[in-house]
Amino acid sequence: MTLLASPSTQAHARSPRRWLALGVLALAQFLVVLDASIVNIALPVLGAQLRMDTTALAWVITAYVLAFGSLMLLGGRLADRYGHRRVFLIGTAGFVAASAAAGLSVGAEMLLASRAVQGASAALLAPAALALLTHLFPVAGERAKALGVWGAVAGIGSAAGVLLGGVLTASLGWQSVFFVNVPVGAVVLIAIPLLITRDGATAPSRLDLPGAASITGALLAAVGAASAIEQFGLAHPVVWGLGLLAAVLGAVFVAVERRASDPLVPLAVFRNRNLTVGNVVMLLVGAAMVALFFALSVYMQAVLHYDALTTGLSQLPLAGALVVAAGVVPSLIAKAGARMTLAGSLVMLAGGLVWLAFAPADADFVAHLLGPSLLIGVGMGGAFVTTTQLAVDGVEGGEAGLAGGLVNTSQQIGGALGLAVLAAVATMRTEALGAAGVAEAQALTGGFSWLFLGTAGLAVLAGAVALGARRS
């Protein structure tokens, strides 16, 4: 029995195996999200063996994020153009091959090139996978449950990266954080053709190359500017130059799309208010999430002196709460509606982040961190599931890949910008406290406190967007 049919009938495809197919798709998405964070713990060991300085190590992360974030929209449209399953399999194969090459790297150049190919492959994989999900579950109730699984995977992948990175690096070496993708990716490549039949093109036959070039350049410049903030500071000319380039190319893209007969991103898609709200909220929540997991890991290791494994284990309650929330949220959406559920989730997320901001420099995990971690997990799980559902609500088959590309791009761009800006704020606060004679641990804690309050502000702003925008 098939899971997907021709473009004209795929919206009605049904099969008992679609839940198994969802599990395999979620496994691939887990790898994509995991790979953005699992490498962090391995960087010191990796740098020592490959003789990479701090700037070069930053590019191990940046090369992946740049390619992933800037090519996502193009990847989604290619999936609509050439078939979602085909592009998903190509992206997965590229991701597996690049992971193997990264683990075999004998120098910085080979590793950075492999990371860039990983990111580009993920930009094909991620939007195509979400598009396949929307076709597998056309009925609203089942789709909400499927998106619950999807949202849980997205949140768990980020949290699990710290734990798995520490375990693998300590036991098997830094290469294992890349090699772990190979057998898992192989399972995905074997299983998907058996579970999902080939789907045909649903987008226009011509690819909008000027639009693709301008938006890819704009996103590349935007993510590059965010990465430059971390390295050079907010006032550096490189940051402002890349920011200006991103704005100019973004304006060029809008002008091109208005005139294109077959646009890469039909601007009319933003008339779907749920899609627009979903992407704006995902931008803000993605910014809060990436900054949170980065700061929480550094706080636990630099201030509380946890080792890598303890740091990962300490984030398990947050991940567990996220999973539970993701399972419950679909029924809440059915009763209260997506926007009220989203607003409530964001309030809980903001509350947990404010609570965490008051953790002291000598915090006890049970007394000071467990409560806010659980609250953050519940809020984040609800926010991810509901936001993703809004972002694909009412999208037709021919734009499913585009919708997947948009929401993934919003998450990645938001994460890059949020981490860069909030990390800069935390650094300034820490330096100011240090200059005033405050002890190092207290100064670091003060900086992280401002960062956590900043993430709470992003969650509150996202809630205001969710409640304030009119329904589609």
From TrEMBL:
<keyword id="KW-1003">Cell membrane</keyword>
<feature type="transmembrane region" description="Helical">
    <location>
        <begin position="340"/>
        <end position="359"/>
    </location>
</feature>
<feature type="transmembrane region" description="Helical">
    <location>
        <begin position="277"/>
        <end position="300"/>
    </location>
</feature>
<keyword id="KW-1133">Transmembrane helix</keyword>
<feature type="transmembrane region" description="Helical">
    <location>
        <begin position="87"/>
        <end position="108"/>
    </location>
</feature>
<feature type="transmembrane region" description="Helical">
    <location>
        <begin position="178"/>
        <end position="197"/>
    </location>
</feature>
<feature type="transmembrane region" description="Helical">
    <location>
        <begin position="120"/>
        <end position="140"/>
    </location>
</feature>
<protein>
    <submittedName>
        <fullName>MFS transporter</fullName>
    </submittedName>
</protein>
<feature type="transmembrane region" description="Helical">
    <location>
        <begin position="235"/>
        <end position="256"/>
    </location>
</feature>
<feature type="transmembrane region" description="Helical">
    <location>
        <begin position="312"/>
        <end position="333"/>
    </location>
</feature>
<dbReference type="InterPro" id="IPR020846">
    <property type="entry name" value="MFS_dom"/>
</dbReference>
<feature type="transmembrane region" description="Helical">
    <location>
        <begin position="147"/>
        <end position="172"/>
    </location>
</feature>
<keyword id="KW-0472">Membrane</keyword>
<dbReference type="Pfam" id="PF07690">
    <property type="entry name" value="MFS_1"/>
</dbReference>
<feature type="transmembrane region" description="Helical">
    <location>
        <begin position="20"/>
        <end position="43"/>
    </location>
</feature>
<keyword id="KW-0813">Transport</keyword>
<feature type="domain" description="Major facilitator superfamily (MFS) profile">
    <location>
        <begin position="21"/>
        <end position="472"/>
    </location>
</feature>
<feature type="transmembrane region" description="Helical">
    <location>
        <begin position="55"/>
        <end position="75"/>
    </location>
</feature>
<feature type="transmembrane region" description="Helical">
    <location>
        <begin position="365"/>
        <end position="385"/>
    </location>
</feature>
<dbReference type="GO" id="GO:0005886">
    <property type="term" value="C:plasma membrane"/>
</dbReference>
<keyword id="KW-0812">Transmembrane</keyword>
<feature type="transmembrane region" description="Helical">
    <location>
        <begin position="406"/>
        <end position="428"/>
    </location>
</feature>
<feature type="transmembrane region" description="Helical">
    <location>
        <begin position="448"/>
        <end position="469"/>
    </location>
</feature>
<dbReference type="InterPro" id="IPR011701">
    <property type="entry name" value="MFS"/>
</dbReference>
<dbReference type="InterPro" id="IPR036259">
    <property type="entry name" value="MFS_trans_sf"/>
</dbReference>
<feature type="transmembrane region" description="Helical">
    <location>
        <begin position="209"/>
        <end position="229"/>
    </location>
</feature>
<dbReference type="GO" id="GO:0022857">
    <property type="term" value="F:transmembrane transporter activity"/>
</dbReference>
